What does this fold into?
Amino acid sequence: MSMDRFDRGTLSRRRFVQGLAAGGAAAALGPWPKNSWALSGSDNTNILSGTRFDLAVGETPMNFTGRTRPAITVNGSLPAPILRWKEGTTVDLFVSNRLPPNSIHGHQTSIHWHGILLPANMDGVPGMSFDGIHRGETYHYHFDVRQGGTYWYHSHSGFQEQAGMYGALIIDPLEPEPFRYDRDYVVLLSDWTDLDPVALFARLKKMSDYDNLSKQTVGDFFDDVGRHGLSATLQDRKMWGEMRMTPTDLSDVNGNTYTYLMNGTTALGNWTGLFRSGEKVRLRVINGSAMTHFDVRIPGLKMTVVAADGQYVHPVTVDEFRIAVAETFDVIVEPSGQDAFTIFAQDLGRTGYVSGTLAVREGLRAPVPAVDPRPILTMKDMGHGGMGGGGHDMSAMDHSGHDMAAMGAASMGGQDMAGMDHGAGGMQQHPASETGNPLVDMQTMAPAPNLADPGIGLRDNGRRVLTYADLKSTFADPDGREPGRTIELHLTGHMERFAWSFDGLKFSDAEPLRLNYGERMRIVLVNDTMMSHPIHLHGMWSDLEDEQGNFLVRKHTIDMPPGSKRSYRVRADALGRWAYHCHLLYHMEAGMFREVSVKE
Ligand SMILES: [Cu+2]
It folds into this structure.
């Protein structure tokens, strides 16, 4: 072992996962008062509301693990203050760059209002919407608030989002909401690292599997042999080897690097929301992570999902939901019969968690569940239906090296997969730019929408888990027109090189996607990688379709699990240049990013 992958110095694993109890601002500020998170309370020191806001971006020393590190903060706070707007008003936000001259996080900053409809020059993406906010400057954001619901905001400069620059955005709607509740809390999930994010990115480029300590062992191998037979096991192993991945690689940065936070508080710090028995409590769950999908549940309580990405959905009651980076879910719970309930959020890779508590008074705790067993990614997960996972016969695979593009077949690790019969009614075609491309290590062969699939690690776990098929907007397709044309884009990557792209082309090499102002069009995404990518289009809604192409739910971020092919409608009703990208921060930086240009 060339590096100290298992040795985190003086930090115990437990301390690392759970963080410091009093983690947070290292200076005299101390952690924010717990009650500052009660949106319905009165003493809300960390909530700013109204129409005029002064936000100062600076660097603040923070300590979540025992080490003090410079975080990027807004008004000295991590997360940034909760902003509360009203639909129908006009907001003025004065964002000042107060980063110190020697900041490791650069000299320029920005705020992007995630999921908010606004003019392009208010969208906050440096190099696209505006020039960024340089040290000592103040940028005046000014726009009409045309929607209600739960959103968030974050830096779009470098890796500042990873360093703490994210906050909740609550917009009170004009019309009464179609549900009732007695209390209202933000539950903002995030991933903190003591590392300089630039160094973390460099490490990913050099050693993309650094965080995947859980390679399968010799013991696992013999278990598999016992279960599936030697030949099937060898074939499965061989295929994974060719794909340069092990079946447990689910996230490229995980709890081996991150300490997860809930409202800026570690698991030990135990963020607490108060309730009285029988009350309805609204939780506005926001995933403000850089890289982490979370699976959220509250043992002992059902959660009724009433909004997704700020937009109302028909209520659906579940035990658990997966929340991709940048998504938001509003849920209503009715705690009773116990004095305390644990809000438990484990990461998709099952390497860590953060928890908090709903309780009748401060200081209470309910049992915290163990992290679920680590799921094994199967070939089926990756749109190679029927092969591999579960010990199927792999002898039909031919690796003799024909020209796969000509045969319309798919490849893994540059190997030809022709001759495989997967009976899925036609193989997936791939853009020519993927063929022979050193930045593309895999293509999916039989991708499917998989909208009713809870996802890797959540199937058949005995709990009712939310799926995209459960999310139905309370309104009909707001545009109503059939899409006039379709653009298909493939999510592509090379694990080992930590290269991420659309259609095998990095942002720097790609032309903008051109949309005609006013048109209704359809985007089809095909995931040709083994990772889940939450794809976010700025400035316009993404109206997800079901398998038949009917409008399902309005979102701003569409998660794309491995092996999935999903479609959504876009109304190009916002002129200008917009960002379109994977919301995993390091994937975006690595090139999974496009400009969308809307012109008359
Ligand atoms: Cu991605």
